[in-house]
Specification:
By secondary structure, this protein is mostly helical. It has one domain. The relative contact order is 0.21.
């Protein structure tokens, strides 16, 4: 999980609050993680980011 230090702060904080989503994200390939990270650039609030992360493991 060395890549965690390079995550956007809001996304990383939201992942820390959801172990299922963090495990899901960790299991993704680098290309899949990058695809999800690209989606985070349009998120504009803490609540929206948490909802995005909460839905990760359901994708």
């Amino acid at each position: 999980m060395d890549y965690l230090q390079d995550l956007p702060m809001g996304f990383g904080m939201a992942l820390l609050q959801n172990q299922d989503a963090a495990a899901y994200f960790d299991a993704l390939s680098e290309a899949e993680r990058r695809r999800l990270l690209d989606k985070t650039h349009s998120i504009q609030s803490k609540q929206e980011m948490q909802a995005f992360v909460d839905d990760l493991h359901m994708q």
